[in-house]
Amino acid sequence: MSRNLALQLLLFLLTLATTTLAGAEWRYGRSFFYGYEGFLWPPTITWSQVAGGLAFSLPFLGFLTAHEFGHYLTARFYRVRVTLPYYIPIWLGITFGIGTMGAFIRIKERIYSRKEFFDIGIAGPLAGFVVALGILGYGFTHLPPLDYLYEIHPEYRVWGQNYASYVYFRPDDLAIGKNLLFWLFENTVADQALLPSRYEIVHYPFLFAGFLSLFFTALNLLPIGQLDGGHILYGMMGYERFNRLSPILYTIFIFYAGLGLLSLEVNLEEDWWKWAGYALYLLIVFRPLFPQPSQGTRLAAGVLIAQLLVQVVWPQVQGYNGWLVFGLVLSRALGVFHPPSPNEAPLSKGRLILGWIALVIFILCFSPAPFIVD
């Protein structure tokens, strides 16, 4: 066994362990090492509950594996040198997480055509999407009785099916956002009497794994830079047209993400750092879009002014500030532009249709506000 293969296998096993522990934490509503009274020893989660975390880790890792092997097998089909997936385990035991930062493959040589970029880029999301449909289909057709939720939250019994009207008043209550596909499953195949509140989805491992699968599918299908969606749109449009459109889409993404972040009721003594920090953020993320720093500065100022104008005219409009973190990653690590390929021949009609199907999948999976802390 080669050193790389041994590392990849080790990372997969570690990720299986960390996602299983994270799944147990979410399913049973308790942190492994930390509770309301501080650090806990011995842990309050039992080994049988840890095993229950497999109901989250196995479907979610099944999705990640299908996604990455979609890329891998397509790259091998084109004889592009590529590594097997590297999984990224992460688990602290003192706070809730999902046990992983995903997985990636390394393409070790240049891709030579728009067709190859398109095929390799689209294969991962399509494969992962099929698995996500299976996870959600099973989860929504196998909802447990309400007694399952009462075992986690015994205090809900007194309210019965109306518990949602009484219990969500804490400032740190976490709700799962919605997307069109999740909504369709809820309203077509699920037993409405057993359907949990959006605040309780995290206790239902197949639903939670399915939602995360849709979230990561949409994230990868964003038509920006060198994300899978960027590869797809580049294949459809070509180098010059895509690289004119991608920074526009990125600017719209940042504009939406920052809406409502700053309050117009300004106390300069207390809030100056928020304004200064966000202004610096905009300068940092827009700088790579232009050859001249002054151009990035003008765009940053324009976006900030436009966001404030929206807040004045429509104060109820709120973006999703959590996207700002991913916006920084896009700008400074992944890149907003796409490299050219030696063969810029246009795609076939069939591939263009498949690209539009990928856009529909993105719309179905995308959550404007995926995780909501009320």
Automatic annotation (TrEMBL):
Domain Peptidase M50: 56-241
Cofactor: Zn(2+)
Signal sequence residues: none
Localization in the cell: Membrane
Single GO molecular function: peptidase activity
This protein's GO CC annotations: membrane
UniProt name for this protein: Site-2 protease family protein
UniProt source species: Rufibacter glacialis
